[in-house]
Please model this.
Amino acid sequence: MSKLSDYSKFDHLNVSDDETDEASETAVVAAAHAQSSPPSSTPSSTTGRTKKHPTEQNRYIFEYSGQKVYEWEQSLEEVTIYIDAPPNLPKSNAGQYINVNILPNRLQVGLKGFDRYFIDERTFDKVKVKESSWYLDDGVITIVLAKCFRGQTWEGVLCGHHDVAVKQQNGDSSHRTDNTREENSGVVNESIDPFTKQEMQRTMMLERFQEENPGFDFRDATFNGEVPDPRTFMGGVGYNH
Model:
């Protein structure tokens, strides 16, 4: 499992242009991996921050210790993640050096040829692996995770142990097992605040209304009071699309 303090590795790959010209492509990748070792001091807190993107509508930024880890957004069907790739990968066929494994409840991102991932964390909930995908374009790794439960509001991307962490903070250890004790040492508390969750649910409710009523325009629609859950509202979201 990776630690959030390691995520800054993607931001500290400082192979110079001269070195790149002289080295083979394999050496460049090795240098990128070597220079991306975690810092000597690890922050004591494992709590990140999710905030609204300043320019991209319905997109959010997840930060840790003031550094952007990735950007993400969600729809009824999918969660899309945008990760800045290492800047000094070979320009030709750079995607072949990226290793992305999308598992039913885990996401792994790293460089091929190395046994340690830059990101290796549980996802918020289950993913349909066969319907998920990823690609590299213009220096950004875009990962599309197909939600197993259509219409579900993901409160983060890498926060599979958030509920367990909350139970522990509240003194409830009934759900702890040997595995959760081991994995919770690197808990990613990415849970969003109530206002942000409402904003996300509003976006997906409007998407659902538009889908169910294609002849109407719901872009400027508002809700009085709390926004309902897009997955369960009025008998639940459909799966026939």
